[in-house]
Every structure is written in structure tokens, then in C-alpha cells.
Specification:
The protein is built from 18 helices and 7 strands. It is of the alpha+beta class and about 400 residues long. A hairpin with a 2-residue loop joins strand 1 and strand 2. Helix 7 packs across helix 9 and helix 8 runs antiparallel to helix 9. This is Integrase.
């Protein structure tokens, strides 16, 4: 190897314009205008690279040699010192790399995949409520399984589903941090799961009403109010609360309501809309609701926006009922199984469930609209008391 430390401090100050080697790839470049700087020449993966180490006025000879040795050591390990320095500069320029900041950055990056850009807060709330108050100020590179375990232990069994979501979000945040070039333990969430053990929580289904009792309940929704009309249409269509509450008049064409794909659960990142056949009773409910229309929305709130998710639930609570609006989807699905000969694919599509593998759906692109139209008309007849006890048969 070429000799090192060829220059002396006196020579560095005295030499005129030109390029002078100190050995080991370290050069001093002196310009005609009196300026001077240090340059390190290295070869990385067969490529000749030059990196500036600073001006002579700022970096004395001793410091330039120390820097040169640091970067040469990195080259010996097979790393590119220029890329590493850029990474360090980017990291230094970032806000403090706490879990709070990295989690917010990860959330921003994922908003396009979430319904309504995540404005409902459901993606971020498990972190915001149960993780960040305890761990938010910890640098993400220092986060370990014990920290995560201690944060989630209070809800691990009592709120198992929330804890599971929080752990899932943490895994995403850690991967995001790694993508930013931070040295994080990607296995920390899995290690924390091992420390916490299996949850004792038993998931409970949302209480639903036997389909035979739905007509009697439907008959009690006789007031021409937004809440009564919305609950009636929810029962008649089998839709989830969100698309039902956000229904717009311009989405209805004849007896078909086209629900925007972004409103449907389980259809993240996709643009497919979903067609809902409207029975005669459903169309009548929509007519009764039109006088309440505001801003294009059929079921507006008394203040602003649309009717809240809890409005229909509170109606059933006030009546002392254990069932909840979402349970009518189970009532409908049980009726389809017990009182019709609807094929599995058709019955599942009624509830907007995705059926089959991605490959199967590529070739089978029907949404069974005509078959569903027959079923939903008969469901409406049952609900209104017209078709009790009748078995629905679909034409083959």
C-alpha cells in the first residue's frame, strides 16, 4: 500500500495551487483563487469514486486523515462511503425518529389505500389510543419486544381485537422505519406476541334477529323519519351501515343502486363498484326519504354530514333490544340458506362478499344481478309480511 501521511502541516499551509497526495487516496486540492479542499479517492465495487471531506479552512490535516481512515474502513467492508454519508445526512435532516413521528409518516404513506384517506381514524386509532401514549417518545431504533409487551399487556385479553390491530399496525410502522434506512428490530412485534401468549378473549358475533322475526320489527318502523327510513333500507338491501348512510340520489338508476367501490369493506385499493338491485319496497322507502335529501345525500344528519353510525343502533337500544343493525345481514344470509335454493356464490354476493380466488374472479365476472333481483324482491315481500312461509326458487 502507498505510504500514508506524506504531507506535513507546514507543507499544507505553504504549498501553492495544485493537487497534493497525502497517501491512501487522500488529496489536497489548492485552487488559483486561494481556496483549498480535501478529496478522498476510493474504489468501490470496481468503480472509482471521489468524495469531498471539506475545506482546508474548516478541516485541518489531522481531522482530514481521521475522516479518510473512517471512510476507507467502510470500503474495506464492501460498503459505499458516499451512499452511507448521504444516508446519514438524510437521517440527520429528518425530524426526531421517535415512534410517534415514524407512525405518523407511515400513516401518511398508507392513506391512499384507506377508505376516505383514513379520515375515520380507524387505522391509526389503535396506535393512538394504546401504544403512542406509552411508547411514542421512544426512538424507533430502540424499541424492543419488552416495550411493546408492556404497552399492550393491559388490553391483550380484555380487548383482544384492538390489541391485535395495534400489533399489526406496529409491524407496518417498523417496516416503514426499515424502509427509511433506520436500524430497527423488525421481529420485535412477533417477539412481543410470544411474550404475551395467546389471548383468552373469545370473539362474539354481533347479535342478530331470527329472520322469522324481522317482519314484526320492520312493521314498527312506521315513522317517516331519517332513522326509521335508513334502518328500513338497510334491512331491505343487506348492506353495511357505511354505504347505506352515504347513499346519494345520483347513484340510483332505475331499480339499481351502484355503490362506489371505495365505500365497500374489503375492497381497499380496488375501484370496482357494486350494483344493488332495489325491490319495490326499497324504491318506496327511497321516495319517502327524498324530502330529507341534502347535498345529494338521502339520509343527512340533523346538523351536518350524514346520519351517524350510532343513530340506528340507539333506536334498538332504547327499545331494550340486544340485536344491532349489522345483525340484519346475518338474518338475511340465514334466510337465503334456509328458505331459498340460492347457490352459495349468489347468496354470498348478496352480502357483497368476495367469492372465489383472484384467478377465478378474473374469469367469472358476473355479479349475479338478475338472480339477486329475484331474491331481494322476495326478501322484501317477506319483510313486509307478504311472503311469509314461501320458499324462493331461482330459475336454472
Amino acid at each position: 500500500m502507498a505510504a500514508l501521511n506524506k504531507l506535513s502541516a507546514v507543507e499544507v499551509r505553504a504549498k501553492g495551487p495544485g493537487k497534493y497526495s497525502d497517501g491512501g487516496g487522500l488529496w489536497l486540492h489548492k485552487r488559483e483563487d486561494g481556496g483549498a479542499q480535501w478529496v478522498l479517492r476510493v474504489t468501490v465495487h470496481g468503480r472509482r469514486r471521489e468524495m469531498g471531506l471539506g475545506r482546508l479552512s474548516d478541516v485541518p490535516l489531522k481531522e482530514a486523515r481521521a475522516q479518510a481512515e473512517k471512510w476507507r474502513a467502510m470500503v474495506r467492508r464492501g460498503q459505499d462511503p458516499i451512499k452511507e454519508r448521504e444516508r446519514q445526512r438524510r437521517e440527520a435532516a429528518r425530524p426526531e425518529n421517535t415512534l410517534q413521528n415514524i407512525a405518523l409518516d407511515a400513516f401518511e404513506s398508507r392513506k391512499a389505500e384507506l377508505k376516505g384517506d383514513g379520515k375515520a381514524g380507524r387505522w391509526f386509532s389503535p396506535l393512538e389510543l394504546h401504544v403512542l401514549p406509552k411508547l411514542g417518545k421512544i426512538p424507533v431504533e430502540e424499541l424492543d419486544q419488552q416495550d411493546i409487551k408492556n404497552a399492550l399487556m393491559p388490553i391483550w385479553h380484555s380487548k383482544a381485537d384492538t390489541a391485535r390491530k395495534a400489533m399489526n399496525r406496529l409491524s407496518i410502522v417498523m417496516k416503514h422505519a426499515a424502509a427509511l434506512g433506520l436500524n430497527v428490530d423488525l421481529q420485535a412485534p412477533d417477539k412481543a406476541k410470544a411474550l404475551l401468549g395467546k389471548t383468552r378473549h373469545i370473539a362474539k358475533n354481533i347479535p342478530s334477529m331470527p329472520w322469522q322475526e324481522v317482519p314484526a320489527f320492520y312493521a314498527t318502523l312506521e315513522d317517516p323519519t331519517v332513522t326509521h327510513l335508513a334502518l328500513r333500507l338497510l334491512i331491505l338491501t343487506g348492506l353495511r351501515s357505511r354505504p347505506l348512510r352515504h347513499i346519494r340520489l345520483d347513484e340510483i338508476d332505475g331499480d339499481v343502486w351502484t355503490v362506489p367501490g371505495e365505500s365497500l369493506k374489503g375492497r381497499k385499493g380496488k375501484t370496482e363498484d357494486f350494483r344493488v338491485p332495489l325491490s319495490r319496497e326499497a324504491l318506496e322507502v327511497i321516495e319517502q326519504a327524498k324530502p330529507f335529501e341534502r347535498g345529494g345525500y338521502l339520509f343527512p344528519s340533523s346538523r351536518q354530514g350524514v346520519i351517524s353510525d350510532a343513530a340506528m343502533s340507539r333506536l334498538m337500544e332504547r327499545r331494550g333490544m340486544p340485536e344491532r343493525p349489522h345483525g340484519f345481514r346475518s338474518s338475511l344470509r340465514t334466510w337465503l340458506a334456509e328458505a331459498t335454493d340460492a347457490p352459495y356464490e349468489v347468496a354470498e354476493t348478496v352480502l357483497q362478499h368476495v367469492v372465489g380466488t383472484a384467478v377465478q374472479r378474473t374469469y367469472n365476472r358476473t355479479d349475479y344481478l338478475d338472480q339477486r333481483r329475484v331474491l331481494m324482491e322476495r326478501w322484501a315481500q317477506l319483510v313486509t309480511g307478504e311472503g311469509a312461509g314461501k320458499v324462493v326458487q331461482l330459475a336454472r
